[in-house]
Amino acid sequence: MNMVYVASRFEFSRRRENLSWSHHATVAALEVADQEHWLDRAVAERMSVADLRVESRSWRRALEAKAGAEEPRAACASAQTLVCPGCGEVIPLAP
Questions:
Q1: Which of 3, 23, 74, 78 is the most buried if burial means most Cβ atoms within 10 Å?
Q2: What is the residue range of 34's domain?
Q3: Quick check: pTM over 0.85?
Q4: pLDDT tens digit string along 53-66?
Q5: Four-point Cα dihedral 52, 92, 95, 59, nearest 10
Q6: Over the range 27-56, which residues count as b (16 or more CB within 10 Å of their CB) and which as e?
Q7: Nearest alpha carbon to residue 51 among 75, 16, 27, 29
Q8: Closest C-alpha to 2, from 26, 20, 36, 18
């Protein structure tokens, strides 16, 4: 069932040949734009599945923490932040 779910979330043209099925499964629950962001970043930074999980979970936790102050999708759109995997602190990156 998990394989069917992941496959349904990624059209063939959006799949990354150089990433594993587990990379795709890690971000399958995200919105399409967020999936693209994380898969692109995983390729560019040669992230392992474990690294991708830690980074994306920290990012989601930071978004949830901001949810009371702003709309989560608006925070997601900027995606120009660095999230500490240890403490979850969100650090904005300069343009």
A1: 23
A2: 2-92
A3: no
A4: 999 999 988 888 88
A5: 20
A6: beebeeebbebbbebbeeeebebebbbebb
A7: 27
A8: 26
